[in-house]
């Protein structure tokens, strides 16, 4: 009969699920998964881990018939379904039988369904377990109440760590090495989370092709496979152009807040869930650095950044919008830890008072924000936060709502310096303080374009950029704060008492 294993190695979530099924004694199970090889490995491990003495492990397929994992044991030399089920019924001792793609025989033959019902009674309390695996969900009504069903999720961290240890052994035989230090395995496992074991294997091989040693320096290559995965979804984009938080001018309050929350987020597995940062909503005037701030968050937290494309969600190319949105959010949970970015959230997710698809998406989003995994940090941006309902911006959804205003004098000088340095120009040669009066009311994007235009003009004349170039360009700019004065004043007025300022000197005025 079955018993709990005495092994003390950490169990993956999938192994625990199988252990619970075996402990319950239910002889029929249905696993929905396209990872047939992984299911087989988990079942073989369960046959050894959860039985005392070890149970036999068998598999059946329409092409190969019954095969035993133990050498020297043979079943009926046939792919006949009836012969396989009769063999299971007559098996003398505890065993785990893996029936691959068995939804086809169940769909085609009433006999098979009837025989499975017989086996449920015949195998009860005999230590015989029949596990059907298939990438397609098909459960006859006659079996729905006696068969335990679960979907096999992508491997969790423990399973990926075990997988990397196995890959280290194989790599050593091929003349390569994999760092199996505990912290390194954890970091590499997190980089692979969201992938199937086959996809993780390809990622490891890709990394070893680049460098015969796999370690922390291989994380960007491992993440590349994840980028390919999310790009296939069509609704999620991997954002690879990371921005260091030092490259964001001003916004001292928000930077300080992020640095403090980074420490809590890194400790998310060891602290109470209510202490783990959930996310931040950044609103403000267009062109003042909201998107840049989100990229800096990912860099600060040392996490990959993914953007959910609401245009694709509503395109209809990926199913109904509410289904595509829910699928994208759940995929993000699978590939966590990560920062997930909702850009211009007010345009894609509207109030629950709205009828139809957008209202259902809004309702799902509110629930998801409360229940999502602690490995996801949500970063949202909005130009018109006054269009968002109160349910979304209340405390508990986002940890903080920051307002990014037009940069102050000192911030504009800092932004000028950042963009000059980025283009190989030493800002020490410029008296940038002289530009503060001329650039009053400018956004950060307008400062950047001033630098770009000045450098471009200088390069066209085959000379170095100088202060006069900046003055000339700045004199011809009409800032957004003037061309869209009413809208900008409205946004700043709304934020005065409703959002936290992102800069020390910032006070919406």
Notes on the structure:
With 509 residues, this protein is an alpha/beta fold. The chain folds into four domains: 13-151, Rossmann fold, CATH 3.40.50; 157-232; 245-404, Rossmann fold (3-Layer(aba) Sandwich); 409-477, Helicase, Ruva Protein, domain 3 (Orthogonal Bundle), CATH 1.10.8.60. It is built from 21 helices and 15 strands. The protein has helices spanning 13-24, 36-49, 81-90, 103-108, 110-123, 157-173, 182-192, 197-210, 219-233, 252-266, 290-301, 310-313, 321-334, 345-348, 357-371, 390-393, 409-422, 444-460, 467-474, 480-483, 485-495, and strands spanning 28-32, 56-61, 65-68, 95-100, 128-134, 148-151, 177-178, 213-214, 236-239, 279-284, 305-308, 338-342, 376-382, 400-404, 500-501. The strands form three sheets. A seven-stranded mixed beta sheet has the order 9-11-12-13-10-14-15, with helices on both faces. A hairpin with a 3-residue loop joins strand 2 (56-61) and strand 3 (65-68). Helix 8 packs across helix 9 and helix 13 (321-334) packs parallel to helix 15. The longest helix has 17 residues, at 157-173. Mean pLDDT is 85; it is low at 1-8.
């Amino acid at each position: 009969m079955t018993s709990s294993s005495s092994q003390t190695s950490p169990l993956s979530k999938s192994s625990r699920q199988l252990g619970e099924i075996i402990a319950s004694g239910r002889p029929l199970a249905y696993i929905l998964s396209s990872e047939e090889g992984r299911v087989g490995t988990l079942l073989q491990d369960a046959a050894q881990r959860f039985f005392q003495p070890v149970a036999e492990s068998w598999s059946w397929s329409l092409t190969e018939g019954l095969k035993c994992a133990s050498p020297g044991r043979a079943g009926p030399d046939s792919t006949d379904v009836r012969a396989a089920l009769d063999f299971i019924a007559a098996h003398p001792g505890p065993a785990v039988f893996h029936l691959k793609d068995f939804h086809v025989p169940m769909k085609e033959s009433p006999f098979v369904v009837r025989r499975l019902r017989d086996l449920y009674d015949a195998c009860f309390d005999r230590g015989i377990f029949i596990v059907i695996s298939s990438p397609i969900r098909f459960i006859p009504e006659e079996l729905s109440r006696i068969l335990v069903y679960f979907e096999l999720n992508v491997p969790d961290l423990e399973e990926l760590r075990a997988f990397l240890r196995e890959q280290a052994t194989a790599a050593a035989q091929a003349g390569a090495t994999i760092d199996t230090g505990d912290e390194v395995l954890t970091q590499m496992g997190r980089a692979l989370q969201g992938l199937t074991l086959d996809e993780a294997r390809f990622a490891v091989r890709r990394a070893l092709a680049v460098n015969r040693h796999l370690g922390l320096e291989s994380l960007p290559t491992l993440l590349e496979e994840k980028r390919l995965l999310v790009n296939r979804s069509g609704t999620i984009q991997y954002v690879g152009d990371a921005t260091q938080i030092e490259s964001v001018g001003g916004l001292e309050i928000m930077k300080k807040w992020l640095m403090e929350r980074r420490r809590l987020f890194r400790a998310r597995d060891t602290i109470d869930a209510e202490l783990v940062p959930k996310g931040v909503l950044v609103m403000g005037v267009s062109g003042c650095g909201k998107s840049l701030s989100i990229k800096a968050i990912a860099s600060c937290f040392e996490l990959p950044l993914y953007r959910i494309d609401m245009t694709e969600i509503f395109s209809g190319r990926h199913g109904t919008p509410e289904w595509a949105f829910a699928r994208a959010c759940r995929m993000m949970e699978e590939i966590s830890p990560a920062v997930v970015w909702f850009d211009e959230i007010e345009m894609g997710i509207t109030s629950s008072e709205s009828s139809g698809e957008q209202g259902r998406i809004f309702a799902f989003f509110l629930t998801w924000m409360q229940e999502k995994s602690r490995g996801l940090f949500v970063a949202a941006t909005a130009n018109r936060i006054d269009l968002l309902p109160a349910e979304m911006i209340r405390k508990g959804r986002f940890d903080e709502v920051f307002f990014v205003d037009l940069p102050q004098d000192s911030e504009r000088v800092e932004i000028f310096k950042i963009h000059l340095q980025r283009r190989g120009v030493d800002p020490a040669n410029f008296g940038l303080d002289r530009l503060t009066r001329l650039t009053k009311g400018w956004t950060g994007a307008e400062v950047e374009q001033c630098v770009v235009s000045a450098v471009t003009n200088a390069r066209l004349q085959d000379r170095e950029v100088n202060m006069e170039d900046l003055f000339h360009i700045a004199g011809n700019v009409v800032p957004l704060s003037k061309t869209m004065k009413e809208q900008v004043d409205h946004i700043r007025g709304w934020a005065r008492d409703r959002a936290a300022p992102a800069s020390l000197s910032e006070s919406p005025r």
